[in-house]
């Protein structure tokens, strides 16, 4: 008797999120339910990364995780609260804030309809890395070719004259080493996990991060309903806010390794000077406003963002 | 594990009863998935497998590398390369078969696909070998085996896919394939010599070699030029290995039009044939994806990994077991599907193996070495019955030669491949020498 | 009729392969000569490739280009051989029909959510429709084709 759950994982098997968050979480659930709920992490994903939300909804797998920005549609519009600039300086406080704000103020459950929402999280603060010049004034961004993940940061960067290029993260190394791009926007962890230190020179950090990406962890609703209320309770204790803390710590550890790799690779890190920050702030508030105005009915995007920043202790 | 084995058995039965491989895999995989997860989940999985395979950026190298081969075949370049190579071996018994091997090697250095290499050389080399009285088995064997070099000597579709699956440096993977590829050419040449020594009926008496013509020189130089263009482009940092497919295709058209006498009609055929061959490969990849999702779900990868751990074996022992698994899978699976199914399972295992000190102490080196082993095992699968893709390609070009005759001729080269993979496993330096 | 249909598909497929080559060339050459890479080369390649695979699928099917193992065939009588060929084609046709059906469902979903590529915002449902047509026609071709 019990429930066997299958988790489809698309990140490389040695990725810190898999090793330090997903797998330990799965093990703890098995322990907490005294072996009645068992989670098997598959060796190979059952579909492409962007398919992972639908896979949980349609029961292809029982549990999946992924990025909200994978699908270019308005399904997860409210999740963008966690993708703007100046959101926080570490992945734990941001992930906790994202879970709290998105579920309490912006209807996260509704946007993840068809699944049971287990977790929401951010990675560490996003920064600008390039191999051409330090960003001392905002005009220094002009003409740089940068790989960006799309969405908010793409709009922000294009506004400052950056030539934005989209390519999967696995190919960034090839593109950087051949000068297809001059730089990337990434949190620190990517320097180590994609081995980028050889081809980057300058890191520009922005207090609170220049952007972030938001992630979900969901379960097929039918499977969730098949779990006994007592075991559901046990899973809930380990999920939600508790999972945000756990996965945030994993990201922070990954960022530490990335920072070390950057230093060893001779990369120079500097905080963006006030002029650059002011220019970003100005454009960021325009984009935030556009998003907030586009939200339907009862959602107050501005208040949600303010709440987010209050929780992470960022002043804009 | 049991359900996976049953599924493999059903798949094999369907394949033998003439159900096209792509659709047999999709059928068994989809039905198996539905059996475990329900029809709706299986349908959703099938739908996205079909759609997303078509839009998979990294697979764009498939039509382009095939097109490149078609252009060289459709102009005089490929046949010039072949007759040029014939000059080298003209005075030896089996010389044309050796020239086939050598020109396959040369062709592989500009073409990323084993199928394109085999298809081209069957059109170019087969008529000559028949005219001079070579036995069909040796002739087709040399072409099918020589064609496998296409994915080991850079550029290579399979190496690109391996690199993307494991997030390794594709440039280094390409370089690692060169020495094992040259070793392959050498061993194949030895195979021809041994074969004609043991069975003189396979090849005719020695004849006077043809004089080198302008076309031969053009063929050899054009191939060499294209190889240099691709290598300088990749290693000079001008384009990525994936972009090399598009750039190489364009360069091939320009070179073939300038010096190879490429006509408009031949260009049209090169384009449409590349499209048609690509759809065939994509259908198989779709089938492999669906079947792979099923066996993953059924827990086959975990069972294999567990097996490896529980036996408590050392690094080399695990590699040998993996090679044996590849030899078995290679019988029934097509090359690309084999890579897509197995590499995600095995490469995390490789990272954790202990190879002691030396070259393999660095796990990234171990992974490059493993890549070469996987590619050579895949090359072997291309000529191992019953599902040997290179043999099928030959069969479609030469419908009058039976599969049995072809596989008999291949046996000589198959033995050479076993020797080669043993050497590569025993001496990692063969693969890692040029990587540095 | 059939010949004309085939020619049209061949022409489109040839154009798509040419397009794939040109996209890379414009991107790479533009990058070096004019410091101006082709924006969205990645996405254009993706959609051209998707279209190519779908457009070529009926052609491949019509040519009998899908890989079959006919190792047993030489020892079987011709009648049995042809019968197996028919059954094999019928199974392939059913699978392709199922592909088409699942793509109908997928395409409805893509249309409903207006799913698009990240950079250029190319709507994905166009390609879903092409896929549906491709596999439906391929299934028909597989049934009508005479195996040797
Ligand atoms: Na090659
Ligand atoms: Na085989």
Task: Please count the beta strands of chain C (DSSP E, at least 2 residues each).
Answer: 0
Mean pLDDT of chain A: 94
Percent range for β-strand residues of chain C: under 5%
Biggest interface found: B-C, 65 and 60 residues
The percent range for helix content of chain C is over 70%
| Whole-number total of structural domains of chain C | 1
Membrane topology (chain C): Multi-pass membrane protein
Organism (chain C): Thioclava nitratireducens
Domain Tripartite ATP-independent periplasmic transporters DctQ component (chain C): 20-144
Subunit structure (chain C): The complex comprises the extracytoplasmic solute receptor protein and the two transmembrane proteins.
Give a description of the structure:
The complex is a heterotrimer of chains A (316), B (436) and C (148). Chain A is built from twelve helices and eleven strands. Chain A is α/β, with parallel strands linked by helices. Chain B is globular and about 65 Å long. The two termini of chain B are 41 Å apart. Chain C has 148 residues and is an all-alpha fold. Chain C has helices at residues 2-33, 41-62, 78-113, 125-144. Chain C is elongated. Chain C has one domain. Classes of the chains: A alpha/beta (316), B mainly alpha (436), C mainly alpha (148). The interface between B and C is large, with 65 and 60 residues. The structure holds sodium ion (2 copies). The site of one sodium ion (NA) has 6 residues of chain B, from α16. Chain C: Keywords: Cell inner membrane, Cell membrane, Membrane, Transmembrane, Transmembrane helix, Transport. Chain C: Part of the tripartite ATP-independent periplasmic (TRAP) transport system.
């Amino acid at each position: 008797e019990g429930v066997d759950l299958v988790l489809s994982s698309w990140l490389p098997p040695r990725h810190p999120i898999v090793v330090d968050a997903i797998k330990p979480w799965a093990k703890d659930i098995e322990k907490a339910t005294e072996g009645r709920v068992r989670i098997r992490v598959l060796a190979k994903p059952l579909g492409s990364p962007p398919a992972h939300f639908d896979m949980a909804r349609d029961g292809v797998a029982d549990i999946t995780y992924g990025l909200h920005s994978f699908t270019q549609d308005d399904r997860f519009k409210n999740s963008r609260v966690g993708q703007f600039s100046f959101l926080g300086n570490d992945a734990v406080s941001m992930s906790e804030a994202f879970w709290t704000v998105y579920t309490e103020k912006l209807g996260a459950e509704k946007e993840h309809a068809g699944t049971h929402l287990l977790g929401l999280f951010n990675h560490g603060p996003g920064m600008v890395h390039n191999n051409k010049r330090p960003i001392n004034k905002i005009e220094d961004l002009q003409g740089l070719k940068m790989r960006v993940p799309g969405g908010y940061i793409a709009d922000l960067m294009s506004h400052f004259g950056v030539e934005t290029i989209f390519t999967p993260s696995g190919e960034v190394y090839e593109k950087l080493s051949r000068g297809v791009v001059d730089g990337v926007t990434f949190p620190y962890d990517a320097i180590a996990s994609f081995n980028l230190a050889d081809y980057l020179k300058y890191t520009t950090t922005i207090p609170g991060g220049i952007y972030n990406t938001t992630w979900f962890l969901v379960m097929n609703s039918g499977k969730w309903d098949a779990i006994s209320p007592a075991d559901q309770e046990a899973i809930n204790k380990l999920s939600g806010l508790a999972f945000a803390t756990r996965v945030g710590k994993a990201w922070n550890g990954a960022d530490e390794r990335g920072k070390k790799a950057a230093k060893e690779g001779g990369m120079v890190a500097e905080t963006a000077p006030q002029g650059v920050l002011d220019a970003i702030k100005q454009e960021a508030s325009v984009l935030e406003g556009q998003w907030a105005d586009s939200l339907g009915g009862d959602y107050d995007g501005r208040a949600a963002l303010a709440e987010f920043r209050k929780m992470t202790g960022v002043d804009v | 594990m049991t359900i996976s084995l049953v599924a493999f058995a059903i798949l094999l039965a369907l394949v033998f009863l003439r159900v096209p491989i792509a659709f047999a895999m999709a059928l068994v995989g989809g039905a198996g998935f539905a059996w475990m997860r329900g029809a709706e989940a299986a349908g959703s999985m099938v739908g996205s497998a079909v759609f997303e395979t078509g839009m998979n950026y990294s697979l764009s190298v498939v039509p382009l590398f095939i097109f490149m081969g078609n252009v060289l075949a459709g102009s005089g370049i490929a046949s010039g390369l072949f007759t040029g190579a014939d000059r080298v071996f003209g005075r030896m018994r089996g010389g044309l078969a050796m020239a086939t091997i050598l020109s396959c090697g040369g062709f592989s250095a500009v073409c990323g696909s084993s199928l394109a290499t085999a298809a081209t050389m069957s059109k170019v080399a087969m008529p000559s070998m028949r005219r001079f009285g070579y036995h069909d088995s040796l002739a087709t064997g040399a072409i099918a085996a020589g064609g496998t070099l296409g994915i080991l000597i850079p550029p290579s579709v399979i190496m690109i896919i391996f690199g993307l699956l494991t997030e390794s440096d594709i440039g280094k993977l390409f370089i690692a394939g060169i020495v094992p590829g040259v070793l392959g050419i050498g061993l194949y040449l030895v195979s021809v010599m041994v074969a004609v020594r043991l069975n003189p009926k396979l090849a005719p008496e020695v004849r006077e070699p043809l004089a080198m013509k302008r076309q031969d020189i053009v063929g050899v130089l054009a191939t060499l030029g294209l190889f240099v263009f691709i290598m300088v482009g990749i290693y000079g940092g001008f384009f990525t290995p994936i972009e090399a497919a598009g750039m190489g295709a364009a360069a091939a058209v320009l070179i073939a039009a300038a010096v190879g006498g490429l006509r408009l009609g031949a260009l049209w055929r090169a384009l449409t044939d590349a499209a048609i061959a690509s759809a065939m490969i994509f259908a198989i990849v779709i089938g492999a994806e669906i079947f792979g999702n099923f066996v993953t779900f059924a827990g086959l990868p975990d069972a294999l990994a567990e097996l490896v751990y529980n036996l408590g074996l050392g690094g080399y022992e695990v590699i040998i077991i993996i090679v044996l698994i590849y030899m078995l899978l290679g019988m029934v699976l097509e090359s690309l599907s084999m890579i897509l199914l197995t590499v995600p399972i095995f490469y995390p295992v490789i990272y954790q193996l202990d190879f002691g000190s030396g070259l393999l102490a660095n796990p990234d080196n171990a992974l490059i070495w493993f890549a070469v082993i996987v590619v050579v095992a895949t090359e072997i699968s291309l000529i191992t019955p019953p599902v040997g893709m290179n043999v099928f390609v030959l069969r479609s070009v030469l419908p009058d030669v039976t599969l049995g005759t072809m596989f008999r001729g291949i046996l000589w080269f198959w033995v050479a491949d076993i020797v080669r993979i043993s050497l590569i496993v025993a001496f990692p330096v063969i693969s890692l020498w040029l990587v540095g | 009729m059939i010949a004309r249909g085939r020619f049209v598909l061949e022409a489109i497929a040839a154009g798509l392969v040419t397009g794939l080559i040109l996209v890379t060339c414009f991107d790479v050459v533009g990058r070096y000569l004019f410091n101006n890479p082709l924006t969205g080369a990645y996405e254009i390649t993706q959609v051209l490739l998707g279209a190519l695979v779908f457009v070529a699928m009926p052609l491949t099917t019509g040519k009998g280009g899908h890989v079959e193992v006919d190792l047993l065939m030489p020892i079987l009588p011709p009648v049995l051989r042809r019968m197996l060929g028919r059954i094999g084609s019928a199974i392939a046709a059913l699978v392709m029909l199922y592909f088409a059906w699942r793509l109908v469902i997928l395409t409805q979903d893509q249309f409903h959510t207006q799913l698009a590529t990240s950079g250029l915002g190319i709507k994905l449902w166009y390609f879903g429709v092409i896929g549906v047509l491709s596999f439906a026609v391929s299934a028909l071709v597989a049934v009508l084709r005479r195996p040797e």
